[in-house]
C-alpha cells in the first residue's frame, strides 16, 4: 500500500512540472509559485516578442533580450497576465494597442529602454494597473491628460528621463489623487494607500513655464510621497544647481525689445555696434536681419543683464555703402514676438550747392597726390530699367588704403554728385536715371579730378515700355576697340577719351572684317541663337558699320582742318550701336 502511494505522488509531481517545462520558450525558463506560472527570459537574442507565448502565464519577465518594439496585441492571448517586466531592452516604440487584452495587469515595468514618448491612451486596456515604472528612458514630454487613464495607479517612476517642463495639471488630472483630496487629507492618510511618485534626475528648466509645477511640488504631502523630494534645476544658468524650494518663478511674458539709438548716420569705414535689450519670460530666441534677410556674416554677441533681460549686439566691423539700410532685432518665445529696427545712413559727400560754398567733408582716408597716376578700367556691368551698375578695376600699390570717388551727373553740367567709396569696394549702383538724358559717370582715384579714360557717357532710351519688356537682356558692345561695356537696351555708350588715332580705327575695322568672315562660317552651321555670344556679335556688327562711317567722316574732317592749317579735336564723339 505504501508503494502505491509513492507511485501516485511521483505521477502527480510529474503532471505538475512537465507542462510548464515542456512549453517554455527556447532560451527561457519557467517556474511555478503561489501566484501562478512565470516565464523568465534573461539575456537572450530574442529581438522581438514571440507569437507563441502560452496563455497561462501570470508573470512574464523578458530582460536584456534586444526587444525594439511593443507591437499591437503583443500579449493579448495571455489574459491571466498580472505582472510584465520588459526592463533593459531597446524598446523605442510602443503601439497604442500593445496592451490590448491585459485587463488583469497590475504591474508594468519598462525601465532602461529608449522610449521618447508613451501612448498614454494605451492604458485604457489596463484599468487595474497599480505600478508603472518608466525609469531610465528618454521621455521629454508629459501631456496634461497622461494620467487620466490610470485611476488605480499608486506608483509612478519617471526618474532619469529628459523631462524639462511639465504642467501641474498632469497631477491635478490624476483620478486617484483627486479622489483622495475630496475625501480630505486626514481620512486619506489613515484609510488609503500612499501614492509614490519619482521625478528626480530630470533636466528641469526652472523658468516661468515650470512655475505651476514647482508650486505643486512645494505643497506635496501624504498620501502623495516623493521618492526624492530634492528636485534640482538644470537651467537656466542663473538657477542651475538650485533646489525647487529655493527658487521663485514669475508668470510668463512675451518679449519686449528696446534700443537707445535707432537712427544712426556714420562714415565709411566706421565700426558700428547695434544694441538691442530684450526682456522676456521665458528666455527668448534672438536673431538679426538686414532688409528682411537673416544676417550671418557679422558678429552677434549676447550677454545676460539679469534673469529676464538679454543684451544682443550686432557688430559691423567696417561700414560700406552696401551695409546701409534697415537692421531689425527680432525676439520671440512661445508666448509671442517683438522687434525693433535700426536705420543706418552713410554720411553724404555730395558737392556743396550752397551759396556760402562750404567745404565738403572728406572721408577718413589718405588724400591722393596730384602726380599719382593709376589706370582705372571702368565698365557698366549690369543694367536695370532705370539704372546701371558700375564696376572698375585699378592696379594700386596698397589696395587696403585706396578709395575712389564716383562722379555722376548730366553730361554738360558742372555739378556732379560725388560719392566716396572705401577700400575693398569696386561696384556702385546709379539709379533714378531719366529717359532721353545724357549722363556722364566717372571713377577717379581718391580726390583726383576725372581724367581721360575714367568716364563713361551714355544716353538713356526714350521708350520705357520697351526697356521694361527687354530689361533682362545685357548687350555687349566694343567702344573704340579699347573698352568692353555692358549697357542697357536703348542706351548709347561711349568714353570721353575720344582722341583716337586712325591706327586704332584701322585695327577696329580690320577686326570687324574678321568678325564678318567668322559670322559667315557660323551661318553655314545653322542660324545664330539668342545667346550671350550672339548678342556680342550683333553689337559688333552695328559697331563695325558705325566705325567705318565714322572713319570716313574723320578723314574728311581732317582734310578740311589741314586745309585751314590746324587740327581741331571734337569735344565729344559718340561711338556705339543703338540696340533695338
From TrEMBL:
Where in the numbering of this chain does the Ig-like domain appear? 255-341
Residue intervals passing through the bilayer: 473-494
Annotated region (Disordered) at 553-580
Chain coiled-coil ranges? none
Q: Which SUPFAM superfamilies match?
A: Fibronectin type III, Immunoglobulin, L domain-like
Q: Which Pfam families match?
A: Ig_3, LRR_8
Q: Which InterPro entries match?
A: Cys-rich_flank_reg_C, FN3_sf, Ig-like_dom, Ig-like_dom_sf, Ig-like_fold, Ig_sub, Ig_sub2, Leu-rich_rpt
Q: Which Gene3D superfamilies match?
A: Immunoglobulins, Ribonuclease Inhibitor
Which N-terminal stretch is annotated as signal sequence? 1-22
In which residue ranges is the amino acid composition biased (Basic and acidic residues)? 553-569
Q: Which UniProt keywords apply?
A: Disulfide bond, Immunoglobulin domain, Leucine-rich repeat, Membrane, Repeat, Signal, Transmembrane, Transmembrane helix
This protein's name = Leucine rich repeat, Ig-like and transmembrane domains 2
Amino acid at each position: 500500500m505504501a508503494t502505491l502511494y509513492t507511485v501516485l505522488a511521483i505521477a502527480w509531481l510529474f503532471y505538475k512540472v512537465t507542462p510548464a517545462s515542456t512549453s517554455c520558450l527556447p532560451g527561457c525558463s519557467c517556474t511555478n509559485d503561489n501566484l501562478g506560472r512565470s516565464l523568465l527570459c534573461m539575456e537572450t537574442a530574442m529581438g522581438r516578442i514571440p507569437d507563441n507565448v502560452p496563455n497561462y502565464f501570470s508573470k512574464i519577465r523578458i530582460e536584456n533580450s534586444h526587444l525594439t518594439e511593443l507591437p499591437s496585441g503583443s500579449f493579448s492571448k495571455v489574459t491571466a497576465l498580472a505582472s510584465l517586466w520588459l526592463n533593459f531592452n531597446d524598446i523605442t516604440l510602443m503601439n497604442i494597442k500593445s496592451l490590448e487584452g491585459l485587463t488583469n495587469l497590475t504591474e508594468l515595468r519598462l525601465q532602461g529602454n529608449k522610449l521618447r514618448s508613451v501612448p498614454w491612451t494605451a492604458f485604457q486596456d489596463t484599468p487595474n494597473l497599480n505600478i508603472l515604472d518608466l525609469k531610465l528612458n528618454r521621455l521629454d514630454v508629459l501631456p496634461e491628460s497622461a494620467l487620466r487613464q490610470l485611476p488605480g495607479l499608486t506608483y509612478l517612476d519617471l526618474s532619469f528621463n529628459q523631462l524639462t517642463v511639465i504642467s501641474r495639471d498632469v497631477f491635478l488630472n490624476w483620478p486617484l489623487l483627486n479622489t483622495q483630496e475630496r475625501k480630505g487629507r486626514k481620512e486619506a492618510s489613515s484609510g488609503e494607500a500612499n501614492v509614490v511618485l519619482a521625478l528626480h534626475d530630470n533636466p528641469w528648466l526652472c523658468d516661468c513655464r515650470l512655475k505651476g509645477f514647482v508650486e505643486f511640488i512645494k505643497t506635496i504631502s501624504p498620501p502623495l510621497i516623493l521618492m526624492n523630494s530634492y528636485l534640482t534645476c538644470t537651467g537656466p544658468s542663473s538657477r542651475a544647481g538650485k533646489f525647487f524650494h529655493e527658487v521663485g518663478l514669475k508668470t510668463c511674458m512675451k518679449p519686449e525689445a528696446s534700443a537707445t539709438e535707432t537712427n544712426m548716420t556714420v562714415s565709411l569705414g566706421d565700426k558700428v555696434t547695434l544694441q538691442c535689450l530684450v526682456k522676456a519670460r521665458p528666455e527668448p530666441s534672438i536673431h538679426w536681419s538686414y532688409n528682411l534677410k537673416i544676417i550671418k556674416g557679422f558678429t552677434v554677441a549676447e550677454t545676460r543683464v539679469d534673469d529676464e533681460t538679454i543684451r544682443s549686439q550686432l557688430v559691423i566691423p567696417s561700414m560700406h555703402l552696401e551695409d546701409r539700410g534697415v537692421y531689425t532685432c527680432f525676439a520671440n518665445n512661445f508666448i509671442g514676438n517683438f522687434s525693433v529696427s535700426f536705420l543706418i545712413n552713410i554720411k553724404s559727400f555730395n558737392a556743396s550747392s550752397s551759396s556760402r560754398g562750404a567745404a565738403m567733408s572728406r572721408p577718413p582716408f589718405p588724400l591722393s597726390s596730384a602726380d599719382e597716376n593709376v589706370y582705372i578700367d571702368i565698365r557698366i556691368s549690369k543694367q536695370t530699367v532705370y539704372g546701371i551698375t558700375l564696376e572698375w578695376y585699378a592696379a594700386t600699390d596698397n589696395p587696403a588704403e585706396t578709395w575712389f570717388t564716383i562722379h555722376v551727373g548730366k553730361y554738360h553740367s558742372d555739378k556732379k554728385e560725388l560719392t566716396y567709396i572705401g577700400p575693398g569696394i569696386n561696384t556702385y549702383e546709379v539709379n533714378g536715371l531719366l529717359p532721353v538724358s545724357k549722363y556722364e559717370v566717372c571713377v577717379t582715384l581718391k580726390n583726383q579730378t576725372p581724367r581721360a579714360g575714367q568716364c563713361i557717357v551714355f544716353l538713356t532710351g526714350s521708350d520705357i515700355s520697351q526697356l521694361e519688356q527687354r530689361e533682362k537682356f545685357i548687350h555687349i558692345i566694343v567702344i573704340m576697340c579699347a573698352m568692353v561695356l555692358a549697357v542697357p537696351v536703348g542706351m548709347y555708350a561711349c568714353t570721353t577719351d575720344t582722341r583716337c588715332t586712325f591706327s586704332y580705327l584701322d585695327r577696329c575695322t580690320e577686326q570687324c572684317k574678321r568678325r564678318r568672315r567668322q559670322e559667315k562660317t557660323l551661318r553655314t552651321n545653322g542660324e545664330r541663337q539668342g545667346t550671350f555670344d550672339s548678342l556680342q556679335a550683333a553689337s559688333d556688327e552695328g559697331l563695325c558699320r558705325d566705325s567705318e562711317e565714322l572713319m570716313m567722316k574723320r578723314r574728311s574732317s581732317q582734310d578740311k582742318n589741314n586745309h585751314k592749317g590746324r587740327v581741331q579735336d571734337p569735344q565729344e564723339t559718340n561711338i556705339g550701336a543703338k540696340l533695338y
